[in-house]
Design a protein that fits this description.
Blueprint lengths: L1 H8 L1 E2 L5 E2 L14 H14 L44 H16 L6 E10 L6 E11 L3 H4 L11 H15 L27 H11 L4 H13 L3 E4 L2 E4 L1 H13 L6 H15 L5 H20 L3 H11 L1 H4 L18 E5 L6 E5 L8 E5 L9 H7 L5 E6 L2 E6 L9 E4 L11 H7 L4 E5 L6 E7 L2 E6 L2 E4 L11 H8 L5 E2 L11 E4 L2
Antiparallel strand pairs: 1-2, 3-4, 5-6, 7-8, 8-9, 10-11, 10-18, 11-12, 13-14, 14-15, 15-16, 16-17
Helix pairs in contact: 1-3, 8-11
């Protein structure tokens, strides 16, 4: 795109004049103006001959939905400005791009090539075995003449290859039906049906175009996001999905069915076009979209991680458990638990482990990095390093922190003011406190979340601006939504203002 932008903005030519070399580049249109078409047809007659020019202009149109055809197809501003005239003016890469645009523009207005093809069936008289052989010969080169032009320097076929094909074609054409053939040599070869090929960047963009998703200016960004977030891995030109990408796709498809439907983006593009045309009122369109999207967000916000794990386990069960010995899901260590799919506590990986954790800490398979790679639990400890849990002291006392401080990122923290002896805090204690806040559910009156939080002097229940303390004799793990609603009706309830910002840290000591 940078090279194309340079050609579009223009350069100073050898005669001292400045000129733009190609037309507008941010378009997926295929049509060419009548004036430009007449000029191209005229130059085709001059360069290649009268029989190469079409009787009427060749017109092309996009077959995909929502194609932006307000601009012409990308073409040279002057087709008579040959690539050879720009040698020394453009660098090698820019010249290659100009050659591509020039040759495609010329070729699209030339008559089609005429190919003579011959097919020969060779077999036994009873037709129990038949071999088929085909060969072809170019009768009229048509548009292929452009790619054999010295201006493009892209001869498709070498001369020896052409001669070989011509000899084979002539040999086959000299045969007549019923000629006897003699067996020379037989070579057996096995062929198996192959699955459809995986997407490459080009085939993915083509499919997005056919579905009406995105615009030419967004495709490169879309693919970059897939790579940067490790949703896919590019091996050569082929894109391979990572398990992380499979999980995100399954999660969105399950919980955001309308938004992830193929037609959603295309329909939204149509609605936006209607807004620009004055046929649809934009506030009503956004209101309708947001009211539907908010329901998905509210529902998904209350989904527990265990529900997501069960959904992913059901979706990818064949892939996840196929490599287990004898396809048995009984834990081989404790012989009581069942192997299930779990998300790492630190979000650094995904694994198949025993459902009796923490009593049984057996891990059968870890999915991290390469989707097909099996890693033992010892390897996981070396390759998947969890974030450190830190014990820190700030202006308001000690607190636990998950992970290091980073620019633009605030790690999760938990106050330890209710702990009398900070030196007795273990890693397990810190991890337990870092679980909070926990959403217990939605309030039946207004649908707003009811949250169990860790406050300065103990646990509290919060609903909007209402806060109720949790009695000391009540364990946080025993609190349900019903108990929380009762506590919100107690006499100890108080109202609060906006939440304060987290205090800044001063010094840190790594917990062991």
């Amino acid at each position: 795109m940078k090279l194309a932008q340079t050609l579009y903005e223009g350069i100073q030519l050898s005669d001292g004049k400045a000129a733009g070399l190609i037309t507008y580049i941010r378009t997926d249109g295929l049509h060419i103006s009548d004036e430009a078409t007449k000029d191209i047809q005229s130059y085709i007659r001059e360069r290649y001959g009268q029989n190469f020019a079409s009787n009427k202009a060749c017109k092309y149109f996009k077959k995909v939905k929502n194609a932006q055809e307000a601009h012409e197809a990308i073409r040279p501003t002057d087709v008579r400005r040959l690539p050879s005239k720009l040698v020394g003016v453009l660098d090698d890469d820019a010249l290659k791009l100009y050659k591509l645009i020039w040759s495609r523009t010329m070729a699209c207005q030339i008559k089609p090539a005429t190919i003579e093809q011959i097919q020969v069936d060779i077999g036994k008289p009873d037709q129990s075995i038949i071999f088929r052989f085909t060969s072809s010969k170019v009768q009229f080169p048509g548009y292929q003449a452009v790619y054999e032009d010295v201006e493009t320097n892209s001869m498709r076929d070498n001369e020896s290859g052409k001669d070989d094909r011509s000899e084979i074609f002539e040999a086959l054409r000299n045969l007549t039906a019923g000629d006897p053939m003699y067996l020379g040599k037989v070579k057996l070869d096995q062929h198996q049906t192959q699955p459809p090929p995986r997407y490459s960047e080009g085939s993915l963009v083509k499919n997005l175009e056919e579905l009406g998703i995105g615009r030419p200016s967004t495709y490169a960004t879309t693919i970059k996001v897939l790579k940067d977030r490790n949703y896919v891995t590019a091996k050569g030109r082929t894109l391979y999905p990572e398990f992380r990408g499979r999980m995100v796709s399954a999660f969105l498809s399950h919980y955001f069915t309308e938004v992830t439907d193929y037609s959603f983006t295309a329909d939204m593009e149509t609605e936006l076009d209607n807004v620009s045309a004055g046929m649809t009122e934009w506030k009503g369109l956004l209101r309708d979209y947001w009211s539907r999207f908010r329901k998905y967000c509210e529902h998904t916000g209350n989904v527990h991680i265990h529900q997501v794990e069960k959904m992913l386990e059901k979706t990818f069960g064949d892939f996840l458990f196929a490599s287990l010995p004898d396809e048995s899901r009984t834990c081989p260590r404790c012989l009581q638990g069942t192997l299930i799919f779990k998300v790492s506590r630190f979000g650094a990986g995904y694994f198949i482990g025993c459902d009796q954790h923490p009593k049984c800490k057996y891990i059968a398979k870890t999915l991290y990095g390469e989707e097909e790679e099996d890693i033992t639990s010892e390897d996981t400890k070396r390759n998947v390093e969890p974030p450190k849990v830190l014990l820190k002291n700030g202006p308001y006392g000690y607190y636990g922190q998950l992970g290091e401080d980073k620019k633009g990122y605030v790690p999760k923290r938990a106050m330890l003011s209710q702990v009398k002896d900070v030196s007795s805090v273990t890693l397990e204690d810190a991890l337990e406190l870092l679980r909070y806040p926990v959403t217990l559910g939605n309030h039946p009156d207004d649908g707003q979340p009811v949250v169990l939080k860790l406050a300065k002097f103990g646990f509290t229940i919060r609903h909007r601006r209402t806060i109720a303390p949790v009695p000391k004799n009540l364990k946080p793990g025993d609190i349900t939504l019903e108990k929380a609603l009762k506590l919100l009706l107690s006499k100890d309830v108080r109202r609060c203002g906006r939440p304060k910002r987290q205090p800044q840290v001063e010094e840190a000591v790594e917990a062991t």
